[in-house]
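Subject: Protein record for review, amino acid sequence with backbone structure tokens
How to read it: Take the token row as a discrete description of the fold.
Enclosed: The protein record, placed directly beneath this head.
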Amino acid sequence: RRKGESAIEGQLFLWLARCRMGEEEQATRELRHYLDRPHFWEDSALDVTIGGLFVGQESLAELLATFDRHGTSRAERTRLFFFAGLWRELEGSPDEARALLGKALEGGASAEGTWELARHELERLEKR
């Protein structure tokens, strides 16, 4: 975990990496175990809800309806669409993944590194 990174953020990236390595069941079991524990103040509501999406406790429609609002910061919108895009790619929907990653890039780069990750993932998908 990097300074300033919440525990749930590390869990989300670990889940993504393990799924890409073909360890979906183990990754989901571990993330579900983390989500079942009491949460501390440093875990963002957005990241916890994204974790719920990854383990099947939330739907993408519910996630977007909850967080894709005018009151959500640009950095949070970027994170929302970045993680949603990667989730849709892992679910076998590359076209939807591209669209969601494109939404992550709307508004331009920010100081938060998720925008750069989203740009990299979109470029990777477009080369397929």
